[in-house]
UniProtKB/TrEMBL annotation:
Source organism: Qipengyuania vulgaris
Gene name, Swiss-Prot/TrEMBL: edd
GO molecular function, one term: 4 iron, 4 sulfur cluster binding
Segments forming domain Dihydroxy-acid/6-phosphogluconate dehydratase N-terminal: 69-378
SUPFAM superfamilies from the UniProt entry: IlvD/EDD N-terminal domain-like, LeuD/IlvD-like
Reactions performed catalytically: 6-phospho-D-gluconate = 2-dehydro-3-deoxy-6-phospho-D-gluconate + H2O
Name of this protein: Phosphogluconate dehydratase
Function: Catalyzes the dehydration of 6-phospho-D-gluconate to 2-dehydro-3-deoxy-6-phospho-D-gluconate.
Cofactors named for this entry: [4Fe-4S] cluster
Amino acid sequence: MTKQLNDTIHRVTQRVIENSRRSRNDYLDLMDREGDRQVNRGTMSCSNLAHAYAGAEEDQTAIMAARGPNLGIVSAYNDMLSAHQPYYRYPERMKIWAREVGATVQVAGGTPAMCDGVTQGEDGMELSLFSRDTIALSTVVALSHAMYDGVALLGICDKIVPGLLMGALRFGHLPAIFVPSGPMGTGISNKEKQRTRQLYAEGKVGRKELLASEMGSYHSPGTCTFYGTANSNQMMMEMMGLHVPGAAFVPPGVKLRQEMSRAATQRLAAINKDGDDFRPLGRVVDEKAIINAAIGLLATGGSTNHAIHIPAMARAAGIIFDWTDLAELSRAVPLVARVYPNGSGDVNHFHDAGGMGYVIGTLLDEGLAHGDILTVWDGGFEAYSHEPGMDGDTLTWRDPGPSGDTEMLRPASDPFQSDGGMRLVEGNIGRACFKSSAVDRERWTVEAPCRIFEDQPSVNEAFRKGELDRDVVVVVRFQGPRANGMPELHKLTPALGVLQDRGYRVALVTDGRMSGASGKVPAAIHCTPEALGGGPLSRLRDGDVVRVCAETGTLATTADLGTRDPAPEPQPKIGMGREFFAMFRANADGAEQGASSMLAMAEL
């Protein structure tokens, strides 16, 4: 029997509702006004309509006659990003599936879709976070033609899903469904991949061996199979009820994936304003849905990047959610999944063991998620506790049953650990996030003299020279949103991992981000206030003793920072288009608010 909602989850939800009361009401009022004045295409000028109809080919007559809903696709397709390569054929298939239920489909527009895996450690990574705002703006432009009765959002990876959702929420008077494409097949073992990376960091293997290892991991169309930001995105869309149930981790190119995409298209046609089951996006994404997204992140040990993205997505819907809320939820939500890099198996193993259906079912059974949210699918959130399958040619759902691998999935009544492993650490250095679920408990506390750096290459050079062979807190500053766009610092992981394996007490403190694949080294990340502008990080000096402790929630130094001047600020870098993003950096708010220039300027 399902238990009553957990007291802590109830308390945090009520606090978020209260803190958001004014901004959420303002947002819903705006959506109501937008819905009331939604363009009636029958009243638009013939010239306007002719432009919109001209390219519709065989759907032209149906759209002109308004025979059924006209659905817009916003697609992040490109064939360099493996997760998005399968989207190439989606629009033409979705047009066919829409016609089956008397609807039509047009591609409303495309968005950029950069791959953080390609840009890690390169200049392009400084564009990554603000690509999310660019995607949101592109989504708004796509939907501004006012030709659509529903929105299919085709995107999967790191900044793409948050950006699509943020933009679509500006059109929250329309229904919207995310349509994923699934993960690539499992390659070499994650343990072997990690071993080769560390051997390369130590100079024991060359680039040829490293590239062969990496190609064994990233080898075909589909999402990367580790549980990073992209796959955490898919988990959250399930937790918020924005997918067809169970769509997250079905691989591309199989009949089940095709049938789920057909179901998404036809469901979107059914929940438009002119039907009898209207489900606008702005009502689906409410305070409880945001809380569910955070709960899913904690329960599965998901990407640290979502400590930034969840507040930003929430703000786009007029909801205020911060790291205090996340940390308090973490104390109540148990860790029920261990997926690489937190465990040995990847998302394909996770899906085969029961996947999202199992996770949602066990959370609901223990009163650890809101079961009463409005979802895009008929049957409410309980429908998401089932796993999809095929009965001949028919799409079906079934109870996933017990965990198929208790080393990867456990019931919430017997979890891997009692908390969700995303902790807030704070003190005289600032506030930061610490992903404890990826770190052995004996390493949750590190106190050591710090070494200050202002970029990743300098850290790796010091490592190669042996300058970090000691207990050390590595501080990498001027990596925040206003300094250089808050890049991920994933290139630090192998070197710091080697130092830790050598027996040293090592931690990272930074105002930048780590990858969604943050690993075994303790790290206080997203530190806010950032160093640029005189934040406490800018006043640290080499040798200051810094304490990072996930047990007590401490991020502090014994140094008297108030007596020091901030370090000189680095000059903005140009090239790779970074100069075009200066306006984003200049207007960005803090990481805890979502690190968005767009939302900060719009005062949402």
